[in-house]
Design goal:
The complex is a heterodimer of chains A (226) and B (220). Chain A is mainly alpha-helical and 226 residues long. Chain A contains 9 helices and no strands. Helices cover 80% and strands 0% of the residues of chain A. Chain B has one domain: Orthogonal Bundle (MetI-like fold), CATH 1.10.3720. Classes of the chains: A mainly alpha (226), B mainly alpha (220).
Amino acid sequence: MSRWDRFVETFLNGTVMWKYLPDILSGVVVTIELAVLVVITGLTAGLVLALLRSLAIRPINAVIVLIVDCFRSLPPLVVIVLIYFGLPSAGISPSGFVSTWLSLALVLMSFSEEIFWAGITSVARGQWEAARSTGLTFGQTLLHVVLPQALRLTIPPLTNRTIAITKGTALGTVVAVTEILGQASSAMSNSYNPSPLMMGAAAYLVLFFPVVVVGRWIETRFAWKR
Amino acid sequence: MIESFFNPEIVAASWPIVRAGLRNTILLSLLVVPLGLLGGLILALLASAKAPIVRWPLMAWVDFFRAFPPLVLLILLFAGLPFAGLELGGFVCVAIAFFLNTGAYYGEILRAGIESVPFGQVEAARSTGLSRLQTTAYVVLPQAVRNVLPDLLSNTLEVVKLTSLGSVVAVPELLYQARQAQSLTYNATPIVVAAVIYFVLLWPVVRLLSRLENRALAAR
């Protein structure tokens, strides 16, 4: 057997791959579910916090900044481990899926709040004053004047950050979530063959490569003209 | 609640273990940040050659690693390579994975920095007799780095946070040690201690960054 044949036999073994294909596919479904949940809840919570912060109520803002700074300085894996292995001591036992979702959503919330907030503050004060003086309410000003400008500004950094955090779904494997990496690892130890891992890696590329390319396009499309 | 999360006895008992982890996290960061920067610098300098034949494969390389979760890369190296007869150990795997992954991110940032330096400066520098290398080292890079300093800092923060992945391949860094201490004491306090250490260590950077970012956005 030539070296190449041996390589293929080990890393791209057709029989093994075929056998574990359903496992990997079910992992893909879990990864997508997790990613969609994280993106929706994380971004929504981030926007809500940023809007809350624009009301400029001091004690509330202090709490928001503290929470945001906390999740920006903690590694996501530490948050996951803290929730999954720590909370049971307090009598709550979230599943691995819930722990991962919660952690990544909190991290995305914090990063997106920062970005949304920077976008909101970047809209000149004069615009607020002008809008309010034409008789728009605070809410109307925010919705029709400030947010459309602010959001446009936030799109490039937000896209980048969202992709980076969504990739963190792979961390779920540490707390036994059956997403792609988890499925691939257990298939590898069951079959004594790394082919499932190669399949898992390929699955990640199929999922995320288009996202990165679209992200790059969005970044240039919405980049602020200097 | 206090007993299982902020137990002073457990803090005292597990401190030597956790402290060893902190030391390793710092050492690991001191290794992987320069490695990533080096990888990024190589990519950025290659990309400044404007030939499409260099540019397209480079872009694909960078996007490849931006699409690939770092943990998957790490597991691939750690669990996959032994099947090819190459047993590298957790520490080396972390170093290689970071060189590739964070190198791609640093590369993107440095490339943007280099592109932000007007080409007239290169021409001016070359016409005064500086060589290509001298122009890059003394004229382009200092300005490029300054222009993207907030992004570089932000990525460095992410890299330091990412060293916690080492725990998955048994590198005895902060998170790994904290989990060891947790399973020894049947108590969540060591993990809380680790989280507090990360926070204390990185919070000043986060504050500084959000100030820099706000200023950058407001300036537009």
